C-alpha cells in the first residue's frame, strides 16, 4: 500500500515536472536556461527516487521468494528413492556432445573474426601508408608546380633581357659603323 502511494506521488511529480518544463520554456530568455537546468535537476532526482523504489521492491520480492522457497523446503517430506530410478545417460551424452560442438563452432567463429579484424588492421596500415605517399606526391607536385612557374617566369624575363641586349648591341654596332666610317 505504501509502495503504491509512493509510486502515485512520483507519477504526480513527473506530471508536474512536465508542466514545469513547459512553463520554463515560456520564461524570459535570460532566466530560461536557469529554469530549464533546475527542472532537469528535479527530473534527475525524481528518476533517482524511482530507481531506489524499484530496487527496494526488487529486494523485497527476492526476500519474499526466498522465504516462500524456504517454507516449501521445510514443509516437504522426503522419501527414499524408488527402485525404478534411472539416469538418462544417452540424452546427457548427446547434450554434452552438442555443447562441445557448439563450443568448437564458437571458437572457430571467434578465430575467423580475429583473422578478419587482423586483416582489416593490416589494410588500415596499408591505406595509411598509401595516403601518406599520395600526400607526399601531392606536396611534391605542388612544389614542382611552384618551381616550374618560377622557371617559366625567369625564362620570360631572360628572353626580354636577351632581346634588350641584342637591341642595345645592334644600336652600338650601328653607331660604331655610323661614326667610324
From TrEMBL:
Top-level taxon of the source organism: Eukaryota
Gene3D superfamilies given in the database record: 1.20.5.110
Any matching Pfam family: V-SNARE_C
A GO biological process held by the record: vesicle fusion
Primary localization class, coarse: endoplasmic reticulum
Places the protein is found: Endoplasmic reticulum membrane; Golgi apparatus, cis-Golgi network membrane
GO terms for MF: SNAP receptor activity; SNARE binding
Keywords of this entry: Acetylation, Coiled coil, Endoplasmic reticulum, Golgi apparatus, Membrane, Protein transport, Transmembrane, Transmembrane helix, Transport
One of the record's GO cellular component terms: ER to Golgi transport vesicle membrane
Transmembrane segments: 160-180
Family assignment from sequence similarity: Belongs to the GOSR2 family.
PANTHER family: GOLGI SNAP RECEPTOR COMPLEX MEMBER 2, VESICLE TRANSPORT V-SNARE PROTEIN VTI1-RELATED
Identification of the protein by name: Golgi SNAP receptor complex member 2
Amino acid at each position: 500500500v505504501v509502495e503504491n502511494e509512493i509510486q502515485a506521488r512520483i507519477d504526480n511529480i513527473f506530471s508536474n515536472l512536465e508542466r514545469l518544463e513547459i512553463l520554463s520554456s515560456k520564461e524570459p530568455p535570460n532566466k530560461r536556461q536557469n529554469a530549464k537546468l533546475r527542472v532537469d535537476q528535479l527530473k534527475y532526482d525524481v528518476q533517482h527516487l524511482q530507481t531506489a523504489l524499484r530496487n527496494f521492491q526488487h529486494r523485497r520480492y527476492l526476500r519474499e521468494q526466498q522465504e516462500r522457497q524456504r517454507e516449501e523446503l521445510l514443509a516437504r517430506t522426503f522419501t527414499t528413492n524408488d527402485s525404478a530410478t534411472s539416469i538418462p545417460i544417452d540424452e546427457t551424452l548427446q547434450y554434452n556432445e552438442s555443447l562441445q560442438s557448439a563450443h568448437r563452432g564458437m571458437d572457430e567463429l571467434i578465430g575467423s573474426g580475429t583473422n578478419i579484424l587482423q586483416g582489416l588492421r593490416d589494410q588500415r596500415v596499408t591505406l595509411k601508408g598509401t595516403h601518406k605517399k599520395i600526400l607526399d606526391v601531392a606536396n611534391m607536385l605542388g612544389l614542382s608546380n611552384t618551381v616550374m612557374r618560377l622557371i617559366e617566369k625567369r625564362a620570360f624575363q631572360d628572353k626580354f633581357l636577351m632581346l634588350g641586349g641584342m637591341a642595345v648591341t645592334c644600336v652600338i654596332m650601328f653607331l660604331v659603323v655610323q661614326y667610324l666610317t
